Amino acid sequence: KKRPFLFPASSHSFSSSRHGSTLVVAEHDSGAVKPHSLSAVTAATSLAGNGNSSVSVLLAGSGPSLHQAASHAASSHPSVSQVLIADSEKFKSPLAEPWAKLVHLVQQQGGYSHIIAASNSFGKNIMPRAAALLDVSPITDVTGISDAQTFVRPIYAGNALCTVRYTGSNPCILTIRSTSFPVPQKSNDSKAEASISQVNLSNFDEALIIFFWISADLNKSRYIYQTSQDDEGPDLGNARVVITGGRALKNAENFKLIENLAKKLGGAVGATRAAVDAGFVPNDLQVGQTGKIVAPELYMAFGVSGAIQHLAGMRDSKVIVAVNNDADAPIFQVADYGLVGDLFEVIPELLEKLPEK
Ligand code: FAD
């Protein structure tokens, strides 16, 4: 089925025939690009090493923090040649529909060969919608890039890795697992920072009307409010140490043992789905197939059985320590260090003996 032609060539604000160029759709907060999105820049850079000539970063929102984040993006990696900012109240709230339309618009203007975002709730929400608007199939949860068309991604809850080759038309849309692509270190490279330009949004509303007609009502979702954990600890997705508790903690009060240990080790708190479903902790702490994917230096699991769906979210951790009172618990099959014991004895002892961080 042919899509209607949306934008006349004269409305393109930058080159419409780029070969081998990548657009990173990035998220920002408090004037900085979020670490997940910086990992997407790393992935884009590895495409650049596979023949793609340039990396552009797209940021949207409004106010001074957007411009601060643009400066951050411009200096994030020498391979970033351009930062595009869409400065509008339309992108102030993280609603997927206007963002997907924005990605579509920027693709029309820039003709990228690849578009990448992190595989977190931001990327998972926007990229499939953008792919549908662009009439291409996205490749999700990429953990490795072999060349500009060949990607590795986990299947069967992480029990197998599949190498897929993209044979569709441009753009090739990817979401990447940020745990597989390190956040780029700020380089001392003398290369000039990337240029920062504004996205031409003059066609944006026109595009909305056309898509309203062909696809969905944009008013289907409505921004109400956003809350965040008022927790001083590191972000679960990027923490170097993660301390996870399972159903065995029995209640929210006991879960404080996990929180105290995490605080002592400077780590983030994680939980199994059973612990979340039982209401011990909020669901943004869930690790696993339907929760967060983590790969810290140290992952400690207390009273976690090691169900396949949980392992899917943490099996790439560098060192896994498990404490469980059942010697046959499957978590021991992936653990580097295992202790068969009662967590209600082990955690207090650790809290007592570990030095303050
Ligand atoms: P249990 O399986 O009940 O294990 C508790 C463990 O604690 C047991 O091994 C027990 O021996 C041990 N224990 C008990 N008392 C003590 C004690 N005093 N000291 C030490 N050890 C003790 N789960 C996730 O975690 N993340 C996901 O993203 C996820 N997604 C899912 C998606 C789907 C589609 C489905 C079907 C399931 C999903 N699950 C997920 C659920 C998953 O299958 C398991 O049910 C869940 O992980 C079990 O959590 P648990 O290990 O806390 O509880």
TrEMBL record:
<feature type="binding site">
    <location>
        <begin position="272"/>
        <end position="273"/>
    </location>
    <ligand>
        <name>FAD</name>
    </ligand>
</feature>
<dbReference type="Pfam" id="PF00766">
    <property type="entry name" value="ETF_alpha"/>
</dbReference>
<dbReference type="GO" id="GO:0033539">
    <property type="term" value="P:fatty acid beta-oxidation using acyl-CoA dehydrogenase"/>
</dbReference>
<feature type="binding site">
    <location>
        <position position="247"/>
    </location>
    <ligand>
        <name>FAD</name>
    </ligand>
</feature>
<dbReference type="InterPro" id="IPR018206">
    <property type="entry name" value="ETF_asu_C_CS"/>
</dbReference>
<dbReference type="InterPro" id="IPR029035">
    <property type="entry name" value="DHS-like_NAD/FAD-binding_dom"/>
</dbReference>
<dbReference type="GO" id="GO:0009055">
    <property type="term" value="F:electron transfer activity"/>
</dbReference>
<keyword id="KW-0274">FAD</keyword>
<dbReference type="InterPro" id="IPR014731">
    <property type="entry name" value="ETF_asu_C"/>
</dbReference>
<dbReference type="InterPro" id="IPR001308">
    <property type="entry name" value="ETF_a/FixB"/>
</dbReference>
<dbReference type="GO" id="GO:0005759">
    <property type="term" value="C:mitochondrial matrix"/>
</dbReference>
<keyword id="KW-0249">Electron transport</keyword>
<comment type="function">
    <text>The electron transfer flavoprotein serves as a specific electron acceptor for several dehydrogenases, including five acyl-CoA dehydrogenases, glutaryl-CoA and sarcosine dehydrogenase. It transfers the electrons to the main mitochondrial respiratory chain via ETF-ubiquinone oxidoreductase (ETF dehydrogenase).</text>
</comment>
<feature type="binding site">
    <location>
        <begin position="286"/>
        <end position="290"/>
    </location>
    <ligand>
        <name>FAD</name>
    </ligand>
</feature>
<keyword id="KW-0809">Transit peptide</keyword>
<comment type="similarity">
    <text>Belongs to the ETF alpha-subunit/FixB family.</text>
</comment>
<dbReference type="InterPro" id="IPR014729">
    <property type="entry name" value="Rossmann-like_a/b/a_fold"/>
</dbReference>
<dbReference type="InterPro" id="IPR014730">
    <property type="entry name" value="ETF_a/b_N"/>
</dbReference>
<dbReference type="Pfam" id="PF01012">
    <property type="entry name" value="ETF"/>
</dbReference>
<feature type="binding site">
    <location>
        <begin position="303"/>
        <end position="310"/>
    </location>
    <ligand>
        <name>FAD</name>
    </ligand>
</feature>
<dbReference type="InterPro" id="IPR033947">
    <property type="entry name" value="ETF_alpha_N"/>
</dbReference>
<keyword id="KW-0285">Flavoprotein</keyword>
<dbReference type="GO" id="GO:0050660">
    <property type="term" value="F:flavin adenine dinucleotide binding"/>
</dbReference>
<feature type="domain" description="Electron transfer flavoprotein alpha/beta-subunit N-terminal">
    <location>
        <begin position="22"/>
        <end position="208"/>
    </location>
</feature>
<keyword id="KW-0496">Mitochondrion</keyword>
<protein>
    <recommendedName>
        <fullName>Electron transfer flavoprotein subunit alpha</fullName>
    </recommendedName>
</protein>
<comment type="subunit">
    <text>Heterodimer of an alpha and a beta subunit.</text>
</comment>
<feature type="binding site">
    <location>
        <position position="324"/>
    </location>
    <ligand>
        <name>FAD</name>
    </ligand>
</feature>
<keyword id="KW-0813">Transport</keyword>
